[in-house]
Write a structure and sequence with these properties.
The complex is a heterodimer. Chain A is α/β, with parallel strands linked by helices. Chain A contains seven helices and twelve strands. In chain A, the strands form three sheets. In chain A, strands 6-9-10-3-11-12 form a six-stranded mixed β-sheet, with helices on both faces. In chain A, strands 2-1-4-5 form a four-stranded antiparallel β-sheet. In chain A, strands 7-8 form a two-stranded antiparallel sheet. Chain A starts with a strand and ends in an 8-residue tail after the last helix. Chain B has two domains: 331 residues, no CATH class; 73 residues, no CATH class. Chain B contains nine helices and 24 strands. In chain B, strand 4 and strand 5 form a beta hairpin. In chain B, helix 5 packs across helix 6. Classes of the chains: A alpha/beta, B alpha/beta. Chains A and B meet through helix 2, strand 7, helix 3 and helix 4 of A and helix 5, helix 6, helix 8 and helix 9 of B.
Chain lengths: 251, 412
């Protein structure tokens, strides 16, 4: 029996009229840390958006099987409730939506889906406060509008807070290391490492190997021109650092 | 009580004991003419059918006034008021109407009300005014006047309650006089219901040198009503006006018609309107900023944003600038649209259902203006009023919007 949490087969996807993913195949073993690396324009962000059901992406062919269900036609919120979480590269600012109220609504939607009792505002705030402190965030950030006026580092920490509160099964980290200083990178990485429990699966999308100094990958997949062209263990990172993507050809 | 019509002959009969103030109002009414559908200010609000109804006016007896923390005006008379230093509240007959107001009903309000409720503030105070309406199918007309003395800072909050005032027509308004270097923060919240009263409030705000007015209006519900105001700004005076409207219903017409007149030099105005429309409601934002030849170095900005929640909702957005001098900075803009797709997706990607995410974004659109209200009690009341109008009930707990409650938990 397969131990894969996700199997992507012959995935074709386009943005507008431009085809970006051109028959992508990828299997992701459950409980492991997977890294997708690749040159600019290879389709890394398109892949992550296709998995979460972003409105920009039109899947024209193929399927994405997650926990043995094809999720291509599912709404974004259904995918989220099933345990898929994406940490955005540039989280959108939502003025007027209180950060705590938003996160409590999301947490309670998940709890309701799981048949658990919803948290009241005070219960939620106490739970969130503990994680906020651990992530090195200021508690008052919970009272601000969602992502509004947050620095790059604050946005990434807020994404990590959401991830820790929602406890997803499948986590996509899209360029989570971009724009982070060393301290923020360490705090975010520690948050992610704490969530590694051998059951949860991570898909890290990155240009650079910097974050991989803090989070050890099990598999590295190279995406080029809309297809996965190579899969190997963590040793591939050093190889790519040395030779670049140009030396790799589709196997 | 005798039937009141707006025919000129009847009006003249009714004005047999005319005062100087009445004469001025009558001359001005003659200048602007009786309201009809050709009036620009009533082009989008059905004033004619409202005025053609054979209204019977209700004039309340002046009761014994009880002491209260707030000023309570019931059917146009004072029924309770505070007695603290710095505020004098009384009936007055010498309030002179503005001679250049654009609205006929401003003058009608003055002609119908030789006695006006006058509020004079000569110290820094915060005053809450509660307007109550209790009579069915009547014309309820009264006016107030507020005077803020030199160098005095005042906050006034106003709320409106109806108890069995179905089918009534409230014709009211306020004349506000801010003396040199006075400042006023004026916050009004009014929810109207389809079978309740129709409200028509016509105001005039006079700002002397260096005076400043912050005006925040919150209009919710499925009943019809219009607020009209003219603001006259003398040298260095400043007005910041924000209007939040949420209207729903099949026949609702609701909105703001205004003229901000930059008379003196170095004056400033910022006017922002946010409108959310549902069902077949019609929202109106018809606002003119006029910079007179004397208004050099004026800064004036005006913006209207509207969200239509469904086909059939209709927004009239007319931000206008009329400028008679070169040396100014002015802008205006208007957008009518739907919710931001990226924001909607972000909320959905966290497991929040599409409909719920839409509601959160509508609340967010509104909250930007509600959260700017400084008075905590009033801010919470407006949050609840909006929630009730939009959801039909309030879903927020105090802790969701109250910084003090959240801080208490976070600082445990």
């Amino acid at each position: 029996m397969s131990n894969n949490i996700m199997d992507i087969q012959d995935l074709h996807a386009k943005i507008g009229e431009k085809e970006i993913l051109k028959g992508l195949n990828l299997s992701l073993e459950a409980g492991k840390v997977h890294v997708i690396m690749g040159p600019n324009g290879a389709g890394k962000s398109t892949l992550s958006k296709a998995i979460v059901g972003h409105y920009d992406i039109e899947v024209t062919k193929g399927n994405i099987r997650y926990k043995d269900k094809d999720i291509v036609s599912m709404e974004p919120e259904e995918r989220a409730l099933e345990g898929i979480f994406m940490s955005f590269q540039n989280p959108v600012e939502v003025p007027g939506v209180n950060n705590a109220y938003f996160l409590r609504t999301a947490v309670n939607a998940k709890r309701k889906f799981q048949g658990l009792e919803e948290l009241n505002a005070a219960e939620f705030l106490r739970a969130a406060k503990k994680l906020v402190v651990e992530l090195g965030m200021k508690p008052e950030m919970l009272n601000r509008s969602l992502n509004q006026g947050f620095s790059g580092g604050e946005k990434k920490r807020n994404e990590t807070l959401q991830m820790m509160m929602l406890e997803p099964d499948f986590i996509i980290l899209d360029e989570i290391d971009s724009g982070l200083d060393i301290d923020a990178l360490r705090a975010v990485s520690e948050g992610i490492n704490r969530m590694k429990d051998g059951k949860r699966t991570f898909l890290i999308i990155t240009h650079y190997s910097r974050i991989l100094d803090y989070i050890a990958p099990d598999y590295v997949h190279v995406l080029k021109d809309g297809k996965i062209i190579k899969t190997a263990g963590s040793e591939l990172v050093a190889e790519l650092e040395e030779t670049g993507y140009g030396a790799l050809e589709e196997s | 009580m005798k039937p009141l019509t707006f025919e000129k002959r009847r009006l003249e009969e009714a004005l047999s004991s005319i005062t100087n103030e009445d004469l001025l109002a009558l001359q001005c009414l003659k200048r602007v003419g009786l309201p009809n559908k050709k009036n620009e200010e009533y082009r989008y609000f059905d004033i004619v059918s409202l005025l053609q109804r054979p209204w019977t006016r209700f004039i309340a007896n002046k009761e014994t006034i009880t002491q209260s923390e707030h000023l309570v005006i019931t059917d146009g008379v004072i029924t309770a008021m505070p007695r603290f230093a710095g505020v004098t509240i009384a009936y007055a007959q010498d309030i002179v109407p503005d001679a250049n107001h654009f609205d006929p009903l401003y003058y009608m309000g003055h002609l119908l009300n030789p006695e006006i409720i006058s509020i004079r503030c000569d110290k820094n105070v915060a005053l809450h005014i509660e307007h109550r309406f209790t009579k069915k199918e009547r014309l309820l007309s009264y006016r107030t006047a507020l005077f803020v003395q030199e160098n005095v800072d005042v906050t006034v909050t106003e709320t409106f309650f109806a108890l069995e005032a179905e089918g009534s027509f409230v014709l009211s308004g306020s004349d506000i006089f801010l003396a040199r270097n006075a400042s006023l923060e004026l916050v009004k919240s009014q929810t109207l219901h389809e079978n309740g009263y129709v409200s028509l409030f016509s105001h005039c705000y006079n700002l002397e040198e260096d005076a400043s007015l912050t005006l925040r209006t919150f209009d919710f519900g499925d009943g019809s009503g219009l607020q009209l105001f003219q603001a006259n700004l003398q040298k260095d005076a400043n007005i910041n006006a924000e209007h939040l409207l949420f209207a729903k219903g099949e026949h609702t017409q609701r909105g703001t018609v205004s003229k901000i007149m930059h008379v003196g030099a170095s004056t400033g105005s910022t006017q922002k309107a946010k409108t959310i429309l549902q069902d077949h409601a019609r929202g109106i934002f018809d606002a003119l900023i006029k910079i007179e030849p004397t208004g050099k170095q004026t800064v004036a900005h005006q913006n209207s944003q509207a969200i239509l929640l469904n086909d059939g909702a209709y927004m009239v957005s007319k931000p206008q600038l009329e400028i008679y001098i070169d040396d100014v900075e002015a802008s205006h803009g208007s957008t009518i649209g739907e919710l931001d797709e990226a924001q909607l997706f972000y909320l959905q990607s966290r497991g929040i259902a599409h409909q719920e995410a839409k509601k959160m974004l509508i609340m967010a659109f509104a909250n930007e203006m509600i959260d700017a209200v400084v008075d905590t009690t009033m801010r919470e009341e407006i949050h609840v009023a909006f929630e009730r109008a939009y959801y039909g009930a309030t879903i927020l707990e105090c802790i969701d919007t109250c910084e003090n409650c959240a801080h208490t938990v976070l600082n445990e």
